[in-house]
Amino acid sequence: MADIISPLPGVFYTSPGPDKPPFVTVGDSIDAGQAVGLVEVMKQFTEIRSEVSGTVKSVEVENGATVNPGTVLVVVDEG
């Protein structure tokens, strides 16, 4: 298992917009480098990308929740 963590404080978004589908959902296969969410800090959006390939086991943070550096956002089962 691998944790994808927030590198900075801000607000986590699971999709690129209110009317857009989420970047990832539980059960999705993802590739290293794939975006899994956004963190907004002072109107600046930073894409959070996976460093591993595998299957999304859980999305740990709700859309619109405040996160801190080190907060686990997504858990991926590598392989």
Automatic annotation (TrEMBL):
Highest taxon in the source lineage: Bacteria
InterPro entries: AcCoA_biotinCC (IPR001249), Biotin_Carboxyl_Carrier/Decarb (IPR050709), Biotin_lipoyl (IPR000089), Single_hybrid_motif (IPR011053)
Extent of the signal sequence: none
The entry's keywords: Biotin, Fatty acid biosynthesis, Fatty acid metabolism, Lipid biosynthesis, Lipid metabolism
A Pfam cross-reference name: Biotin_lipoyl
KW Electron transport (keyword) present: no
Tagged with keyword Lipid metabolism: yes
Transmembrane stretches, start-end: none
Residues covered by the Lipoyl-binding domain: 1-77
Pathway in which the depicted protein is active: Lipid metabolism; fatty acid biosynthesis
Reported function: This protein is a component of the acetyl coenzyme A carboxylase complex; first, biotin carboxylase catalyzes the carboxylation of the carrier protein and then the transcarboxylase transfers the carboxyl group to form malonyl-CoA.
Name of this protein: Biotin carboxyl carrier protein of acetyl-CoA carboxylase
Species this chain originates from: Nesterenkonia flava
Taxonomy of the source species: Bacteria, Bacillati, Actinomycetota, Actinomycetes, Micrococcales
